[in-house]
Amino acid sequence: MTKITIEGNNLLSGEIKISGAKNSAVALIPAAVLSKEKSIIYNVPEIKDIEYLIKIMELLDCKIEHKNNTLYIDSSNLKNKPIPEDLSVQMRASYYFMGALLAKFGKVEMSFPGGCNIGARPIDIHIKGFEQLGAKVEIIKNRYIITADKLIGKKIYFDFPSVGATINIMLAAIGAEGTTIIENAAMEPEIVNVASFLINMGVKIRGAGTKRIEIEGTRKLNNGICEVFSDRIECGTYIIIGALLGKNLTIKGVIKEHLEAFLMKLKEVGVKYSINGDTLIISKTENLKPTYIKTLVFPGFPTDLQQPFTTLLTQATGMSIIEETIYENRFKNTYDLNRMGAITNIISLNKLEIKGPRKLHGTNVIATDLRGGASLLIAALIAEGTTEIENSDVILRGYSDVIKKLENVGAKIKITE
Ligand code: UD1
């Protein structure tokens, strides 16, 4: 287990380059098992989840070369093998092997996926979708066994526009005879990123990025090539850091169309920045205003930026409210934020109030989940004194090179085992 130590309250200047999106990369890698033989994925972030996915790919006899943020994947000897718990449990995205291997072999065996402990996180929508395509899903001792003699394209309606289920059914539908239509699909940029990779392999997909996606099943796939979009959540996190501590902090690799709701909320609280192409320049904002935020599916305010934004709102004058509608347990970071001097209060199951402005002070805290950890990291950067963040491995799961990126712009930060 690693520990991040930060001496806070230093202004940050220089340049931060945003890495490839975790949530795209973790889907693109399992999707690569569908390519004819070889695929190339550019702009892959250096995060723990990628290391585990590579281990799963190697277990399936894929050859992987990983250099300069690029993955060269050779799946010509791909074999279908059960994915054991010690690998599947390391991250949520291991579930993308369900759709990909089902399409390729008509069978998958894997243990339950893992991921941050931020709510119940069932995968019933994925399972229902596989079943609607004709698969049989059994759960035997914490293992999913999914089999299909034949998958047949269907019209599937999602009760909720789940990101994971949209990608998983898109993958499985490639192995189905005929056309699959997903109604009420998720519209997050990750889905567009995966669809373009699959289209590049020769799959006919229409409507990715809208509520209705059509996928034509095919056995004829080519090699695939794609670039991971830049990470909108990492980007939003560094923009928040810039709003609190920036001195002409330059953030490169910004896709503003992926961050509209977040940028609107920043404007509402009084944060100013300039943006030119994919470069954003931001300095510390004084006199932040409070706001109301409701997390929603894309293009609404992303739940993954809710916890980092909470730390920003501890510095706003007045009372802010955050309503979390995606997960039922995503305020765990507030316990330690309060220990650092914030005043936050969970006023009902999914509503948090934040009173500010509050001076934060360094102390020992524990990162309980990835974005909650990011919220504490931001708090540590603005706090007086030294903060030690235990269990910081969870932060490394989503923030590529975070120590070096912050060190380079002037943060006093180190990581120890
Ligand atoms: C993905 C992201 C995660 C992000 C989330 C919402 C990855 C690896 N993770 O997670 O960072 O927070 O999107 O933007 O891409 N649900 C069900 N049944 C299902 C599937 C989901 O009830 O079968 C519920 C979940 O419990 C959750 C909500 O739907 O409350 C959203 O889940 P979903 O969109 O599927 O998120 P993930 O794909 O797990």
Report Rg: 21 Å
Structural class: alpha/beta
The tally of helices reads: 14
Helix content: 25-40%
Mean pLDDT score, rounded?
96
| Portion in strands | 25-35%
Q: N-to-C terminal Cα separation, in Å?
A: 6 Å
Q: How does the overall form come out from the CA principal axes?
A: globular
Strand order of the largest sheet: 23-24-1-25
The biggest sheet, with number of strands, parallel, antiparallel or mixed sense and barrel status, is:
4 strands, mixed
**Low-confidence residue ranges:** none
Count of strand segments: 25
Identify every distinct bound molecule in the structure, by name, code or SMILES. Answer: uridine-diphosphate-N-acetylglucosamine
Keywords:
417 residues, alpha/beta, 4-stranded mixed sheet, binds uridine-diphosphate-N-acetylglucosamine
Characterization of this structure:
By secondary structure, the protein is α/β, with parallel strands linked by helices. Helices cover about 30% and strands about 25% of the residues. The protein is built from 14 helices and 25 strands. Helix 6 packs parallel to helix 7 (about 190-200). Uridine-diphosphate-N-acetylglucosamine (UD1) binds near residues 26, 186 and 303.
